[in-house]
Amino acid sequence: MDAPRDPIEEGATDSADLYDIATWEPRSWLDRLSGGVYGGIRRLGRVIVVVLALAILGAQFALTGLAAVSDPVIGAFVLMSVVPAFGLAAYIWYADVTTSEPLSLLVGTFLLGVLFAGFAAIINTLAGAITLVPVVGMVLFFYLVVAPVEETVKWLAIRLYAFRSDRFDAVIDGAVYGAMAGLGFATIENAIYITQGISEVSTIGSQQITSAGQTAAVRLLAGPGHVIYSAFAGYYLGLAKFNRENAGPIVVKGLLIAAFIHATYNSLVTYLSDILAFAGLAVAPGVAFLGFVFVYDGVFGYLLYRKISRYRSAYRQVNMGTSVSFEDEEVARDRADFEESADGAGDFETSEEFAENRRAEDRRTESQRADGDAADSRSSDRDSL
């Protein structure tokens, strides 16, 4: 959709000077000053957000025991807890068939994911009173607070930095940077859970190490979820960048998808034991949790894989100069047909196009036949005379 234009601009010739009438561009010192002030305010706003996030992170180190991650053993547990999430993020980066994303943008997005997690922690804490209502309150907390807030701050980690770069030049780049934001968020979240677990153990030494190891094992399975959720939101942010006329609804769609998957995971895993008991299934809690995470993340990971594969397929078809079909491969194969062009070169056409050509050919043949019949009829009439 073209941008709306003033009626003077629409009716004026190209030679008309419409400056300060229907169009505007920097010409005077005041114009340049206005542009500089606007740009400065935008840059200052981004700086304030980052500085505030750093302040929150510093407070977490000082007040919540997060400084314990400086211990080599605890730090190692934190790193191990994000290995699956890192592997998933690396795969999404590898699956990008367009130009490779620069390390500076990937690392920057990861760090912003770490920093902005503090915003989510504050909001979740302030809204935690809703959990006093049994079951319903907790589920509402997940769907209305935790998931939307956390997915929004991860989205912000992409939008504030990588999104603005010229290297963010393809829809799939959004999924790559979304995965990095999710990895950063999962890293700091795992670090907080692990250090909190240590602080709850009164005995210093082996019990703290054991507690850290147990928490890291649980968080090991939670990390990939954050990557999946924010990769979905990031993909739709990429789609919005190249569809500016519908950018808002596209972004909202991505956030709604990510938040729904996230909130559903939190709700189900929180009440997994109760659900199994209600269903009459006697499964050990650890086994149930392990199985649930593999199935849940597997399903949505596969859907993300399908979305990325669809983009890869379309990109390769475009690069090969063939027509692009967004149908399932099996359906596309059934509908596709290969025809030889007049000069003998191969020309890939869909069966629908081929059928249309055949119908046009049939119409021409019928027309020629009808003309021939008419000519024969006139000749026969003349003979009879």
Automatic annotation (TrEMBL):
Alphabetized InterPro entries for the sequence: PrsW
Comp. bias regions, Basic and acidic residues: 355-385
Pfam families named in the record: PrsW-protease
Keywords: Hydrolase, Membrane, Metalloprotease, Protease, Transmembrane, Transmembrane helix
Region spans: Disordered: 337-385
Domain of life, per lineage: Archaea
MF terms in GO: metallopeptidase activity
Residue ranges crossing the lipid bilayer per the database entry: 47-68, 74-94, 103-123, 129-149, 170-196, 216-238, 250-269, 275-305
Name by which UniProt lists this protein: PrsW family intramembrane metalloprotease
Organism annotation: Halorussus limi
